[in-house]
Amino acid sequence: MMALPQTLKGELKLNEPLSRYNSWRVGGPAKQLYRPTDKYDLAQFLQQLPEDEPVLWVGLGSNLLIRDGGFTGTVIVTAGTLQTIDIQDNEITAEVGLYCSKLAKQAAKAGLKGAAFWAGIPGTLGGALAMNAGAHGTETWDSVVEVTTIDKQGALHQYQAEDFNVRYRHVSLPENQWFVAAKMQFERGDSDTELELIRELLKKRNNSQPTNQPCAGSVFRNPPGDFSGRLIEISGLKGLTIGGASVSDKHANFIVNNGEATAADIEALIFEVQQRVEQEHGVKLIPEVHIIGEQL
């Protein structure tokens, strides 16, 4: 920990191990890591960064592989902060540090329909916005009407949903801008029905995915008209292990940390699965997880 300029109120750590900030529990240190108190504190922090400073945003780190050499820049952590939520009629305005599971439950309690799928996404709204996360046939940007971003100079910008090129697991975002909040619109529904749907989705997730082991959700995007998990499974790759990383026996599109994995183990296993599926079926699987940082 180091002293911050007097106007800043957040938490700054130097040489902080990033294995504490992602769901695979691997990765080297960040040069510095900042957890802001709110978006105004974040704006002040960004203003004092060097112009050429690399910046990485991390929510729950559930879609992120950070290499063992770490990240030679500044990491902004939003989980546990930037999580205000306001519900008015059929609209929800929420900040990016809000857990997707909490968003789903708050929407259901307010009698809004169409947000239950978020209960099965193990991340924050920021990550869901950045990659158009989805489940059970619904995607994040189906309900987005407006977003707020922040740039590297700390200035806030507002955009309409139609200003973005949104595709399957991809959203175009202006360079050096990051999401800080979103306004979403839903249909009216029944609270009890939506809460029951959330319970069913979570039960299905727990039964079909290795939720009790360190992992990062789905590793690969689904190819058009098929499922990555199916292709990996019929290639005989369930249980395939490199170092401390294994293809899950429960769901083939998950790679788990058996307790001793390095980021290099996981990255090597991702590459091996890609190679084997392409050899067997002629399909090049595209990783859904973002691979960041320096090799050792």
From TrEMBL:
* Entry's Gene Ontology molecular function annotations: FAD binding; UDP-N-acetylmuramate dehydrogenase activity
Subcellular location, in the record's words? Cytoplasm
Question: What name is this protein filed under?
Answer: UDP-N-acetylenolpyruvoylglucosamine reductase
Q: Which UniProt keywords apply?
A: Cell cycle, Cell division, Cell shape, Cell wall biogenesis/degradation, Cytoplasm, FAD, Flavoprotein, NADP, Oxidoreductase, Peptidoglycan synthesis
Q: Where is the active site?
A: R169, S218 (proton donor), E288
> SUPFAM superfamilies under this entry?
FAD-binding/transporter-associated domain-like, Uridine diphospho-N-Acetylenolpyruvylglucosamine reductase, MurB, C-terminal domain
The record's annotation in Pfam families points to: FAD_binding_4, MurB_C
The record's annotation in InterPro entries points to: FAD-bd_PCMH (IPR016166), FAD-bd_PCMH-like_sf (IPR036318), FAD-bd_PCMH_sub1 (IPR016167), FAD-bd_PCMH_sub2 (IPR016169), MurB (IPR003170), MurB_C (IPR011601), MurB_C_sf (IPR036635), Oxid_FAD_bind_N (IPR006094)
Q: Alphabetically, which GO biological process terms does the record hold?
A: cell division; cell wall organization; peptidoglycan biosynthetic process; regulation of cell shape
Q: Which organism is it from?
A: Methylophaga sulfidovorans
Q: Where is the FAD-binding PCMH-type domain?
A: 26-208
UniProt xrefs under NCBIfam families: murB, PRK13905.1
Q: Does the keyword Nucleus apply?
A: no
GO annotations of cellular component type: cytosol
Q: What is the lineage of its organism?
A: Bacteria, Pseudomonadati, Pseudomonadota, Gammaproteobacteria, Thiotrichales
